[in-house]
Amino acid sequence: MATPIDQRYATNPAQIPGMTTQDLRDTYLIPDVFVPGEIRLTYTHHDRIVLGGAAPGGSPLELAGYPEIRSDYFLEHRELGIVNVGGTGTVIADGEVYTLVNGACLYLGRGIRSVVFAGDGALFYLFSAPAHTAYPAALVSPGEGTVRELGDQVTSNRRTLNQYIHENGVKSCQIVMGVTQLHAGSMWNTMPAHTHDRRTECYLYFDVPEEARVIHLLGEREETRHLVVADRQAIISPSWSLHSGVGTSAYSFVWAMAGENQAFDDMDAAPVTDLK
User: Distance between CA atoms of 258 and 198, rounded to whole angstroms?
Assistant: First the structure.
């Protein structure tokens, strides 16, 4: 029997000042993305995104239909982006076998009925949004997408950004998805912080050393808050919330968005001098 989808309801900026640390964590942090032998999913009412993880271990796992999304099968009305952050594994979609190495991304479009995850040591991060049409499945290996070198070592944010699902790459209805890797000695995932008023973004932090943490900034620029995030934990960032983060060491993260448009550079900067 599938584990029920955790529900996270939409929030607004006026709620931030009254939230305790535990309130923030319960609302925006997904601490247990990968549970051995399970598919764990969270439904956020921000842009009706479903995110989570599949950790098949020694037995394959099938992505079934869920009553929470009122579909006979998961991709009946949805599309799905998958990034493997563990060992090599396979995804079988309607009989087609896709092999995903660490860092590879697979897009599956609306209408695919059967999705099975396999691979002892594989950890598949899942990001899904409603879809109005069907686009072809596509697999992108690390380095095969659009690669952008950003930041500078002087400001501790030198990073390699791999764009996989986006307007000039793998086609989708809503999803924009990729992986960013910080270079050794860099800790900031973006600066200045920014918002995407037209879409929700979710982060999965990984390659975070066991003794390290990422401090994730959120909230409005004049009412900022933070969350302390460990390895393989995810964050829901509403469209109105700024986002940036700094780690106690270098790390990687999967970024994924859905909403009004797919233009990667559609963002509104929040200069550090404006933050409070």
Answer: 9
Residues in the chain: 276
Instruction: Judge whether 227 lies within some domain.
Output: yes
Does the pTM surpass 0.70? The reply is yes
| Local confidence pLDDT in tens for the 276 residues of the chain | 468 899 999 999 999 999 999 999 999 999 999 999 999 999 999 999 999 999 998 899 999 999 899 999 999 999 999 999 999 999 999 999 999 999 999 999 999 999 999 999 999 999 999 999 999 999 999 988 888 888 888 888 899 989 999 988 999 999 999 999 999 999 998 877 766 667 899 999 999 999 999 999 999 988 999 999 999 999 999 989 988 899 999 999 999 999 776 666 766 776 778 778
Residue range of the domain that includes 126:
17-274
143 DSSP assignment: T
Q: Is 194 annotated as a binding residue?
A: yes
Work out how many domains the chain is built from and give that number: 1
Q: Are 249 and 229 in contact (CB under 8 A)?
A: no
46: annotated binding-site residue? no
**Annotation-wise, does 201 bind a ligand?**
yes
Three-state secondary-structure class, residue 8 = strand
In a domain, 252, yes or no: yes
Residue at 266 is within a domain: yes
Q: Is 196 annotated as a binding residue?
A: yes
Residue 226 lies in a domain: yes
CATH code for the domain in which residue 260 is found? 2.60.120.10
The C-alpha atoms of residue 273 and residue 243 are separated, in whole angstroms, by: 15
